[in-house]
């Protein structure tokens, strides 16, 4: 043990027994994609080279990630802004050495009308997004963290079992000024800043009494890895809104796509149990069937598109047909309950929440973890500035800047996604008509579409 760390070790009373307590600068609780990225950012941060950071992860160390032949059923659509963060951490090169699939075009359409919207990157130099397996993302980040993180102590199989936040008294009536953590391995830590990256059921958010808004969508997302009929340049992401929720096919490779089908809990259970051929039929039916079409909406919609084409020539629909699915990878079907969870605040004195611990949204826009990576970039920048000025990383002044900046970005995204989820859960004719006309109008106006792409990329 170095002299510096011996200096940091002193005796305190936590619970009723005297145990060793270590003083560290930052503790990150949760080593998922977001928490591990935060640790990786601090590992490579010049201003944190001589500071002590601890990463707590409840799960065990999976060791070096070896890319399996079979694709995982858990994938994320990563935005260009996330790729930029990963490039700065050296993790994007690791991902490129494993596997990823660019998205060059997106088509979103619905089952109740002919309305659709497409996005493509013809006029943009970047791809719209990149589909990467969650295991590949975490494997890449962990590799970079272990290679560069001399200042980061990763404790696997470890979580905090007891917390004392600033202002709370210990059993000796001593008021806490830092955050004290009692760990499952018996150790105690005192830290200037505790970063909660422990997922949507965050125990830090609960223990620190953050006020939280929660909406159960009463939907589950069924995921699976699908085999497509043709081998081709598979770079289109497809999403069709059905009466019961959206189904999305995200490209993985020449004849493979990753499916995320948000549907009722009952249908999700059924989709997981039915034989493979019935499942494949159900997926093709969801992508192709016409039985929800509303004749009133169709007639008004056709007149509207003709009229709009007179004003904006070339605005007629350029619908592409989705791929045909011919198989599902064995044991790749799984489901996840969906909810919106939002912490009204992301910070308190000496505590900051990042990733799903602060905000969990519907996966229909593929933005959830991208927002979490945005938190990492923002918090890292503010902590750097704070360290440059000799400030205390847990001081509320800096942390409030983080909260303001992130909520300015996240709340509009969250409200839009929640609104879309509501808008597409109804089959009421006037609403279907309005949303169809609105979608087609947006589809016809490149200026608005480019704005949407810009927003989703940042
Ligand atoms: C079906 C589906 C599809 C999705 N698709 C996309 C997509 O395309 N694009 C996108 O951006 N997002 C997507 N998301 C969202 C994305 O998966 C989440 O936003 C992301 O996983 C959140 O990462 P996180 O690191 O914040 O939390 P988590 O992934 O939940 O990680 C939390 C970590 O903390 C650990 N932990 C928990 N409690 C403790 C504790 N007390 N102490 C120590 N460690 C603890 C856990 O073991 C875990 O490793 C999707 C979500 C779903 C359900």
Description:
The structure is a single chain. The chain has one domain (3-457): FAD/NAD(P)-binding domain (3-Layer(bba) Sandwich), CATH 3.50.50.60. Residues 1-18 have low confidence and may be disordered. It is built from 13 helices and 21 strands. Helix content is 37%, strand content 29%. It has helices at residues 3-8, 33-43, 80-89, 91-97, 134-148, 203-207, 265-273, 276-288, 295-311, 368-388, 396-423, 429-444, 446-457, and strands at residues 9-14, 17-29, 53-56, 75-78, 101-103, 105-110, 116-120, 129-133, 152-155, 160-164, 179-183, 188-196, 212-228, 236-242, 245-253, 256-264, 325-328, 334-343, 347-348, 351-353, 359-360. Strands 1, 2, 3, 9, 10, 11, 12, 19 and 20 form a 9-stranded mixed β-sheet that branches. It has 458 residues and is α+β, with helices and mostly antiparallel strands. The radius of gyration is 24 Å and the shape is elongated. Strand 2, helix 2 and strand 3 (53-56) form a beta-alpha-beta unit. Flavin-adenine dinucleotide is lined by residues 29-35, 56-59, 76-77, 159, 197-199, 203, 221, 223, 260, 336, 355-356, 363, 366-370, 372.
């Amino acid at each position: 043990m170095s002299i510096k760390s011996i200096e940091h070790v002193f005796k305190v009373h936590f619970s009723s027994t005297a145990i060793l307590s270590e003083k560290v600068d930052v503790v990150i609780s949760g080593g998922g994609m977001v928490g591990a990225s935060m640790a990786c950012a601090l590992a490579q941060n010049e201003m944190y080279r001589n500071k002590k950071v601890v990463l707590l992860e409840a799960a065990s160390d999976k060791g070096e990630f070896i890319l399996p032949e079979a694709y995982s059923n858990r994938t994320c659509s990563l935005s260009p802004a996330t790729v930029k963060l990963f490039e700065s951490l050296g993790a994007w090169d690791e991902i490129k050495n494993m596997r990823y699939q660019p998205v060059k075009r997106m088509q979103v359409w619905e089952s109740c009308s002919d309305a659709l919207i497409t996005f493509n990157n013809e006029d943009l130099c970047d791809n719209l997004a990149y589909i990467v397996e969650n295991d590949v993302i975490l494997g890449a980040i962990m590799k970079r963290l272990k290679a560069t993180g001399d200042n980061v102590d990763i404790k696997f199989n470890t979580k905090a079992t007891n917390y004392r936040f600033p202002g709370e008294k210990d059993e000796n009536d001593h008021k806490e000024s830092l955050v004290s953590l009692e760990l499952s391995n018996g150790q105690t830590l005192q830290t200037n800043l505790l970063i909660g990256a422990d997922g949507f059921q965050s125990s830090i958010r609960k223990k620190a009494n953050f006020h939280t808004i929660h909406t159960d969508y009463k939907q589950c997302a069924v995921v699976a890895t699908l085999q497509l009929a043709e081998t081709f340049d598979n770079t289109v992401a497809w999403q069709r809104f059905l009466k019961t929720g959206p189904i999305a096919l995200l490209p993985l490779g020449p004849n493979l796509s990753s499916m995320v089908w948000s549907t009722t809990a009952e249908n999700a259970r059924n989709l997981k149990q039915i034989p493979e051929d019935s499942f494949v039929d159900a997926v093709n039916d969801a992508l192709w069937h016409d039985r929800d079409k509303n004749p009133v909406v169709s007639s008004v919609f056709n007149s509207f598109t003709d009229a709009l084409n007179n004003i904006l020539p070339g605005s007629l629909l350029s619908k592409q047909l989705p791929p045909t699915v011919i198989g599902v990878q064995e044991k790749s079907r799984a489901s996840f309950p969906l909810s919106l969870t939002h912490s009204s605040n992301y910070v308190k004195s000496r505590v900051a929440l990042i990733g799903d611990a602060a905000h969990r949204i519907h996966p229909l826009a593929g933005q959830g973890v991208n927002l979490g990576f945005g938190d990492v970039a923002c918090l890292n920048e503010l902590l750097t500035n704070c360290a440059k000025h000799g400030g205390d990383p847990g001081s509320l002044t800096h942390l409030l800047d983080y909260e303001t900046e992130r909520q300015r970005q996240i709340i509009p995204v969250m409200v839009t996604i929640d609104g879309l989820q509501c808008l597409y859960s109804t089959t009421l004719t006037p609403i279907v008509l309005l949303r169809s006309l609105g979608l087609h109008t947006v589809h016809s106006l490149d200026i608005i579409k480019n704005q949407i792409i810009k927003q989703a990329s940042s």
